[in-house]
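Title: Request for sanity check on Cell envelope-related transcriptional attenuator domain-containing protein prediction

Description:
We are preparing a figure and want to confirm that the structure record we downloaded matches what your pipeline produces today. Could someone re-run it with the sequence below and paste the raw structure tokens into this thread? We only need the token string, no images.
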Amino acid sequence: MPHNPQDDWTRPVPRSPRQGRGEAEPTRAVPRGQSHDGGWSWRDEDPEPTQAMPRGGYDGQGDDDPVYGDGGYGDGGYEADHGARGYYDDNGDWVPRPRGRGRSEDDRRRDHGYDDDERRPRPRDDRSRDVRRGAAGGGPHPGHPARPRPGGGGRPPRRRARYGFRRFMALLTFLLVAYLVTMIVVVALVWGSVSRVDATPDVADRPGGSSGAAYLLVGTDSREQLTDEERSEFGTGQAEGSRADTVMLLHVPTMGDPTLVSLPRDSYLSIRDQGPNKLNAAHSTGGPALLVDTVEQATGIRVDGYMEIGFGGFVGVVEEVGGVHMCLDAPVQDDKAHIDLQAGCQDLTGPEALGYVRMRYSDQRGDLGRVERQRQFLSALVNQMASPATVLNPLRLHSVGTTTGEALALGEDTSMLEAGRMALAMRTIAGGGGHSLTVPVANPNHPTNVGSTVLWDEAGAAELFSALREGRPVTVEP
């Protein structure tokens, strides 16, 4: 039977000198069978200095550890059997461990929790300890039970929930950006469909700037967009050219509510280089630029923007929005305008709306009654066009917007910002805000050499336009 001294548990345990207690003589191991004062020795030469006890215990002691298989110290394998610096062979001889073989002391120190530059162990995390023990196949160490998970069922799937929320936010952001880009494209297409006219007077005595901005809204009797059948159906006649059938001055102050002032088309005013005449004659003889100049000279307010629409465009816009809802206090019938409307609330079609805003022979107030209906109808039309169902729907906005853009003509100097201010001001008036009135009139049937005209009340008109120029509250009754 072989004699293995390293298996003898009665052999004295070698100890290493402690640091900091002087330089004592290294203790030497005493082989089995020899006393301290002599006797038989199985080593022919002086024994080597006592080495540090290998971590992992004696042979066979650490292999049964359920976690590491090396006595619980984590060295395992080669180091558990042969020690850190060497080992005793079967004959009892000490065999030093060769340099460069196996793992270094630094590697072992890091494995056992020591930093490279310090001798104290690093704090270990319970989760990493559990992972290492689980990887060994033996489960948690009996002396160090695993930390219980909240709820008894493990960690909840927070990562999956967080991932789902992030994916939802990414999708929402993408849809929002796509919607904004679509709306920008639609607005650009609508703006590109608007035609332009020269509405800037080429004169040196234009009025100076006033409080806020003023825009001239004009509805002409141009029949260029109507076929012969439509002209007969709508009762517009066959006259060529265009005349200002509707003239309104929209004033938007810097602070305060907007004001919409109707200027009757038969107003008796002085036209540059022509003398006194009806207001609509300025448009028929000199176009939009002469009409703007006539209004500026009569009101003393500089016009900053111009917008015009003809008969054909008016009918197309009303048809595109699906009709305009109007409530009539009394029946309306006019043979020349080709309309026969019942009293009460109803949706007016394109031809009915055109006849409603043009008729004057069946109205005892003549031109003054017509301008009031025009303002009412324009407010109802703008209110319907500015509804969320139209403005927030890209497809609907493109359809209505391009139809309106093709029907409109803006001044060459009218920018998109000014067009937007016009639209917002008209929406305010359509919602019941601001002021909507007719210029003060002294005589609605003033006889002249150009026919029956509308004579303004000079004092009342001067007070109205002075308040608009200076930004003061409007006190003139509608």
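Thanks, this matches our download. The two ends are 130 Å apart (CA to CA).
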